[in-house]
Specification:
Shape: globular
Number of helices: 6
Largest sheet: none
Order of helices and strands: HHHHHH
Structural class: mainly alpha
Radius of gyration: 18 Å
Distance between the termini: 21 Å
């Protein structure tokens, strides 16, 4: 199930309302003060999706864990660039490090720099 589908489920939506306070906006008709500066809005959204997925798994350890889209991206890379074994090996090792960072997060609940780097890596691999 995609994260968007999951968070729109009625019971999940209610749980979010209970646990995450929503900001109060005095006037929704105000102009945007800070525009996004990059061309990576989609990648930022994917990174947020990974972080939210990781956080939900931390909160609910018995939830079913599905393979990451980035893992599918890696399989495609292995097929398409099979002749470049050194590069594929490097990407594969980085994917394994990402899983280690994820496991550490699930144990501690702390977002460390290595986890953020792994999430950025996963979004790049996913876009392949």
């Amino acid at each position: 199930m995609k994260i968007t589908s999951f968070i729109t489920l009625k019971d999940v939506k209610e749980e979010f309302k209970k646990r995450i306070p929503m900001p109060v906006f005095d006037d929704l008709n105000k102009q945007i003060v800070a525009e996004h500066l990059g061309k990576n809005a989609g990648r930022v959204g994917m990174a947020f999706d990974y972080l939210l997925r990781f956080y939900l798994k931390y909160l609910y350890p018995h939830a079913i864990d599905y393979p990451w889209v980035a893992e599918h991206g890696f399989k495609l890379l292995k097929t398409e660039y099979s002749q470049d074994k050194k590069w594929i090996s490097k990407i594969g090792k980085r994917l394994l490090y990402s899983k280690v960072d994820y496991k550490e997060f699930l144990e501690t609940g702390k977002v460390k720099k290595d986890l953020v780097k792994s999430i950025i890596f996963l979004t790049k691999l996913e876009t392949y």
